[in-house]
Design brief:
This protein is an alpha+beta fold. It is about 55% helix and about 15% strand. The protein folds into 6 domains: about 5-130 and about 280-335, no CATH class; about 150-270, Beta-Lactamase, CATH 3.30.450.20; about 345-395, no CATH class; about 395-490, Beta-Lactamase (2-Layer Sandwich), CATH 3.30.450; about 495-570; about 575-720, Histidine kinase-like ATPase, C-terminal domain (Heat Shock Protein 90). Helix 3 runs antiparallel to helix 8 (about 265-335). The relative contact order is 0.06.
Length: about 725
């Protein structure tokens, strides 16, 4: 329950010479001044030096000023939070208005700040663009390439010269003057400034004519070590423009050749200047982040100032507006809680809110009178709804309520079961989207402008189908359709029973009409064979063959008639307790042969799979299935034909599954194969599966057709486990 805040209208700041309002204004002005000073200082900072202490002190002072102003705003936010925690009337409106006033000024400030940062960043990125950076780096690379080219050149010259000296070692060893002249000739030939031979201790063994005096007291040992390993060591004296190379002379004992060549000093100077300029450019690039941070700090200070000032102004404006509304909000919360006796005071300071209170009180009087009427009406509606749901839940037909757009509003349990959907799949969805087969039924109402329609609908469900007799009625109020009611019944079993009864009568009549002349034909064939057999052997053989053909055809017709008779007059099952496993094993022994693989898999070796059944009819069903499978395998010439029979017991049901490795059932509605005279085999009568289906119905079981894992046909017979016969005797 919200509390009234009539006494908390002016609790934000106590009035006085040095109030929080005055302190806030002073802080805002001081922060503005310090922000301007900081911005001026940032524009005068040398970012290549470390003299930034003055700017840091300015930033610290700015931060302290913002902390003071933020503390004042925090006190107001804390008071606002206290109002919310105490659930004072108007606390939500107070908060929203404060956020609104602050957000109106904060959002543009944030956008402008981000845009300014983007402009600064974009400008700096232009200064240090990839093309400029690439140009600087490439200039350094060109200068270094020039030096590397001279290094490779002098490296080749020193190796060639060392080979010549090694080759002439036999006549130069021990002859210092001759070796010096030879070095002078080699240096002049290869455009070298000097050439010196020295040993590992640094003693000069020979030198060219124009070679300067060189001391090797400070010669780095790493150079000698590299040369001793056969490497060419390239040296450049920092104080000269000469490039040197050192290599070991293999024909001498611990002797090394040092040559030198002058490089254009202007080129070296340009190369050093290029490197220095590139280094300065990179250093300036590193200072880019400092510059970005400086501008970010400046813009951040301005942004924080605007944010905090906006919040402070927004909170004060919100308090001035929300205070008088506290009483109205408090009464409104009382009314929302159900207390219609509360009234708004009509002597408020603001005239507009006072008039609002008067109108609000008149509305409360009218609301109190209407409340009792609504309670009575809702009670009647709830009673009618409960009655309707009870009626729909008890009917055997499927009932679905639709709105004017064809969306499902209320399906009963039967409808969910027949359609195979739950409430989540149906409610709120268009019926023709969930079950497209109902499109024709709805078109009867929509296109023909009728209030009633009826249609037979066939629902395809994987390998089976469901036949529904569906009806639709439109709900019309004042000439406007507000919804529809769809009802439907499952007539699949009824139509199937009608077809079976019709075919049973036809089979009985056909069997009667065909069987009558078969007996005289059979007797006449026997008499022809016995009395009118010709004496001549050849003619007798032909005569006997023709008579045998007649007799075989008569036998085939007789077997067909027997199947008609068996289907037309199925015997009443005699239920006794039998082991289905024994029955299956008995039938396997009849069909097992070397040309057909038959095996049985059971899930429990200790289970006898016993139930109440007619053993003869079960054998007949298994015989029909095994014979059909065998004929199909032979008809399609399947290599290594095999039939696998598996038995399992679960949930008070014994399942016998037969699967072969043939081509399997065709792609069609497999439920139609259980109807009489429907077959896919050339010599089939279409009664085998129908008889098996009838036997399973008599046993209260189910028959399922499908596809085996091997791709062949699969038939599953599910027998319920009974412990008593139909006469009620315990077995």
């Amino acid at each position: 329950m919200l509390k009234s805040n009539d006494q908390n209208i002016s609790t934000i700041a106590k009035k006085g010479w040095f109030s929080e309002d005055r302190l806030a204004y002073i802080s805002i002005l001081f922060t503005l001044g310090m922000g301007a000073a900081t911005a001026y200082a940032l524009t005068r900072v040398d970012y290549l030096s470390n003299d930034t202490d003055f700017v840091m002190w300015l930033i610290i002072i700015d931060a302290l000023a913002l902390v003071v102003l933020g503390t004042l705003v925090g006190r107001q936010i804390w008071r606002l939070w206290s109002e919310r925690r105490q659930r004072l009337a108007g606390h939500q409106l107070h908060w929203r208005m404060a956020v609104l006033f602050g957000g109106v000024t904060t959002f543009p400030a944030v956008i402008v700040t981000l845009f300014a940062l983007f402009v600064v960043d974009y400008s700096l990125r232009g200064w240090f663009a990839e093309r400029i950076s690439t140009a600087v780096n490439e200039s350094v690379r060109v200068a270094e390439s020039y030096f590397d080219e001279h290094a490779r050149s002098i490296s080749g010259e020193v190796l060639t010269m060392a080979n010549d000296i090694n080759r002439e070692a036999y006549r130069l060893v021990g002859k210092g003057n001759l070796m010096g002249r030879y070095l002078s000739d080699q240096a002049a030939l290869r455009n070298l400034s000097d050439a010196i031979i020295f040993d590992g201790t640094g003693q000069v063994l020979a030198k060219s004519q124009f070679a300067f005096a060189i001391t090797f007291t400070n010669l780095e040992s790493s150079w000698v070590e590299k040369a001793r390993k056969g490497e060419v060591v390239i040296l450049r004296a920092d104080e000269t423009n000469k490039l040197r190379a050192v290599v070991k002379l293999n024909s001498y004992v611990d002797a090394y050749l040092l040559v030198g060549r002058f490089i254009d000093s202007k080129v070296l100077l340009a190369m050093d200047q290029t490197r220095l300029a590139a280094s300065d450019y990179q250093q300036l690039g590193f200072q880019q982040l400092d510059l970005q941070i400086s501008f970010a700090v400046l813009f951040g200070i301005i942004l924080l100032l605007i944010l905090i000032a906006s919040l402070w102004i927004g909170l004060n404006l919100a308090t001035a507006i929300v205070g008088p509304l506290g009483s109205v909000i408090h009464v409104a919360e009382q009314v929302r809680a159900g207390n219609l006796s509360q009234r708004v005071p009509e002597d408020l300071q603001l005239e507009e809110i006072s008039r609002l209170g008067s109108a609000f009180n008149r509305m409360l009087d009218e609301l109190a009178r209407s409340r009792e009427q609504l309670v009575q009406a809702n009670t009647q509606i709830d009673q009618r709804r409960e009655f309707t749901e009870a009626v729909l839940g008890g009917v055997s037909s499927g009932v679905v309520g639709l709105d004017r757009d064809g969306k499902v509003t209320l399906p009963n349990a039967t409808a969910r079961e027949l359609l195979g959907k739950n409430d989540t799949d149906l409610i709120g969805q268009r019926l023709i989207d969930v079950i497209p087969e109902f499109k024709g039924l709805l078109s009867i109402i929509n296109q023909k402008k009728r209030r009633f329609g009826e249609e037979q609908i066939i629902l395809q469900r994987q390998n089976s189908h469901l036949i529904l007799r569906a009806r639709i009625v439109s709900e019309v109020i004042e000439g406007r359709v507000i919804g529809y009611v769809v009802t439907f019944d499952d007539v699949t079993s009824l139509l199937s029973a009608q077809r079976k009864a019709a075919w049973s009568d036809i089979a009985r009549r056909i069997a009667h009409e065909i069987k009558n002349p078969l007996t005289p034909i059979q007797l006449a064939s026997d008499r022809l064979l016995k009395k009118y057999r010709p004496d001549e052997q050849k003619a007798a053989d032909q005569f006997e063959e023709y008579v045998r053909i007649i007799m075989r055809q008569v036998d085939d017709i007789g077997r067909m008639v027997d199947e008609f008779s068996a289907f037309a007059r199925m015997p009443q099952p005699e239920m006794e307790r039998h082991s289905l496993l024994d029955i299956v094993n008995g039938q396997i022994s009849l069909f097992a042969s070397k040309d057909l693989s038959l095996d049985v898999e059971i899930d429990d070796a200790k289970h006898d799979y016993a139930t109440i059944c007619d053993a003869g009819l079960v054998r007949q069903a298994l015989t029909n299935l095994l014979q059909n499978a065998k004929d199909s395998l032979q008809e399609h010439h399947v290599t290594a034909p095999a039939i696998r029979i598996s038995m399992a017991s679960e949930d008070d049901v014994i399942a016998i599954t037969l699967a072969d490795n043939g081509p399997g059932f065709p792609e069609m509605d497999l439920g139609k194969l259980l109807e009489p005279y429907v077959t896919t085999r050339q010599k089939g009568t279409g009664l085998g599966l129908a008889i098996v289906s009838k036997i399973m119905e008599d046993h209260g079981g189910k028959m399922h057709l499908g596809k085996a894992d091997s791709g062949g046909a699969l038939v599953c017979l599910k027998f319920p486990i009974h412990t008593t016969t139909r006469d009620g005797k315990v077995r």
